[in-house]
């Protein structure tokens, strides 16, 4: 459970008014004190992501949120941050309090989740404070979602809530496979991993680890090598590799070393399919070719890593892109959970592989770009395009560019 990356877990948002007992429900579901509980409304401010194991369902992430009725200037900002969960949630628990006669806000949030095609469960908490379950049920008649009545304090109904979460969890929430559907069991795959200033000390980055694990889970063999040892690695093999996967930053060098009868692609392109919509991201290639001097380009990264010297997103891609276009461009950078509303101001969005967000959130970002009429592409695809090897990089997927 602890080794499952957060982005690969079922994301369950807990939404409701202040002091409805959202954090208490998380604690009751997990049998742990993972959320701060207080009788003071507004204890939870920003959305808090808590990776947990839910019995019979597996690794999940609970998203504990601020109250949707938060007030004041600061409260408005907290509600805006709560709205981010609309893009990341695979399912939602809307928490109600017995006796609350105005549930307009809760109904609005149910509608918003349903518009996003997110499975919603209504959870009426604190039933230990009321005598008649019939009276508790009255305000919720006619709301078209499954309801359950619980007490996070006494534990009543919590086991049934776990069962309901399992029953209503989306069957298709898991991401597709990274690479194993492209190879047969027994295949030999070479992974080219540069160890440079951007490589984290003492470990590999998440997409590399996930790709290797997917290869091993498919009863195939993965060989890891650096770009400066790739030639010798290829010579030492008794059989031809089924596939070579490289870090996009050394795409051109690896392309020269790997014979063209061996399929070649990159970790970032695999992530474009695994986390997003590969065909939609490929459409961004045409926008890259049409960029002109002064074109506005947004470079978006889902994580908040500290930029290093010659950083891929801050320096390399902008440098390579301006060389490709033959003119200076206007770049804006964005990192973390924020994604702008002014997408229509840009001529192109270049996104990272998205390994730190889940597939729903990546697809949401792609959808927002589509709605704004701005093309989006990811690191691996644009690098392959600029280096003139995009056709080869797409062959393994059966896609012609």
Automatic annotation (TrEMBL):
<keyword id="KW-0378">Hydrolase</keyword>
<dbReference type="Pfam" id="PF18128">
    <property type="entry name" value="HydF_dimer"/>
</dbReference>
<protein>
    <submittedName>
        <fullName>tRNA modification GTPase MnmE</fullName>
        <ecNumber>3.6.5.-</ecNumber>
    </submittedName>
</protein>
<keyword id="KW-0342">GTP-binding</keyword>
<dbReference type="GO" id="GO:0030488">
    <property type="term" value="P:tRNA methylation"/>
</dbReference>
<dbReference type="GO" id="GO:0005737">
    <property type="term" value="C:cytoplasm"/>
</dbReference>
<dbReference type="InterPro" id="IPR006073">
    <property type="entry name" value="GTP-bd"/>
</dbReference>
<feature type="domain" description="G">
    <location>
        <begin position="11"/>
        <end position="126"/>
    </location>
</feature>
<dbReference type="GO" id="GO:0005525">
    <property type="term" value="F:GTP binding"/>
</dbReference>
<dbReference type="InterPro" id="IPR040644">
    <property type="entry name" value="HydF_tetramer"/>
</dbReference>
<feature type="domain" description="Hydrogen maturase F dimerization">
    <location>
        <begin position="178"/>
        <end position="276"/>
    </location>
</feature>
<keyword id="KW-0547">Nucleotide-binding</keyword>
<dbReference type="InterPro" id="IPR023873">
    <property type="entry name" value="FeFe-hyd_GTPase_HydF"/>
</dbReference>
<dbReference type="Pfam" id="PF01926">
    <property type="entry name" value="MMR_HSR1"/>
</dbReference>
<dbReference type="Pfam" id="PF18133">
    <property type="entry name" value="HydF_tetramer"/>
</dbReference>
<dbReference type="InterPro" id="IPR005225">
    <property type="entry name" value="Small_GTP-bd"/>
</dbReference>
<feature type="domain" description="Hydrogen maturase F tetramerization">
    <location>
        <begin position="280"/>
        <end position="396"/>
    </location>
</feature>
<dbReference type="GO" id="GO:0016787">
    <property type="term" value="F:hydrolase activity"/>
</dbReference>
<dbReference type="GO" id="GO:0002098">
    <property type="term" value="P:tRNA wobble uridine modification"/>
</dbReference>
<dbReference type="InterPro" id="IPR027417">
    <property type="entry name" value="P-loop_NTPase"/>
</dbReference>
<dbReference type="InterPro" id="IPR041606">
    <property type="entry name" value="HydF_dimer"/>
</dbReference>
């Amino acid at each position: 459970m602890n080794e499952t990356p957060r982005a690969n877990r079922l994301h369950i948002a807990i939404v409701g008014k202040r002091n409805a007992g959202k954090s208490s429900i998380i604690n009751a579901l997990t049998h742990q004190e993972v959320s701060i509980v207080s009788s003071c409304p507004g204890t939870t401010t920003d959305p808090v992501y808590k990776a947990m194991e839910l019995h019979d369902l597996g690794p999940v992430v609970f998203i504990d949120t601020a109250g949707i009725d938060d007030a004041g200037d600061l409260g408005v900002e907290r509600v805006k941050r709560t709205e981010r969960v609309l893009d990341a949630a695979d399912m939602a628990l809307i928490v109600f309090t017995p006796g609350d006669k105005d549930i307009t806000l809760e109904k609005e949030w149910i509608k918003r989740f349903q518009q996003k095609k997110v499975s919603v469960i209504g959870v009426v908490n604190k039933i230990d404070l009321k005598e008649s379950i019939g009276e508790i049920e009255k305000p919720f008649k006619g709301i078209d979602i499954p309801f359950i009545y619980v007490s996070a304090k006494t534990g009543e109904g919590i086991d049934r809530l776990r069962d309901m979460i399992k029953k209503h969890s989306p069957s298709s929430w898991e991401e597709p496979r990274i690479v194993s559907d492209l190879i047969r069991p027994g295949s030999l795959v070479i992974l080219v991993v540069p160890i440079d200033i951007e490589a984290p000390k003492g470990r590999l980055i998440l997409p590399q680890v996930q790709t290797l694990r997917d290869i091993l889970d498919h009863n195939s063999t993965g060989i890891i090598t650096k770009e400066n040892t790739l030639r010798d690695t290829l010579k030492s093999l008794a059989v031809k590799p089924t596939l070579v996967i490289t870090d996009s930053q050394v795409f051109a060098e690896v392309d020269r070393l790997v014979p063209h009868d061996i399929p070649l692609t990159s970790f970032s392109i695999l992530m474009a399919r695994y986390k997003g919509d590969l065909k939609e991201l490929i459409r961004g290639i045409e926008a890259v070719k049409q960029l002109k001097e002064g074109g506005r380009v947004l470079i978006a990264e889902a994580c908040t890593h500290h930029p290093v010297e010659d950083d891929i997103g801050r320096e390399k891609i902008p440098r390579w892109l301006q060389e490709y276009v033959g003119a200076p461009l206007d770049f804006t950078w964005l990192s973390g959970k924020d994604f702008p509303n002014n997408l229509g101001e840009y001529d192109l969005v270049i996104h990272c592989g998205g390994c730190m967000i889940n597939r729903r959130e990546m697809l949401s970002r792609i959808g927002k770009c589509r709605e704004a009429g701005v093309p989006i592409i990811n690191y691996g695809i644009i690098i392959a395009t600029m280096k003139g090897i995009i056709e080869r990089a797409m062959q393994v997927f059966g896609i012609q560019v």
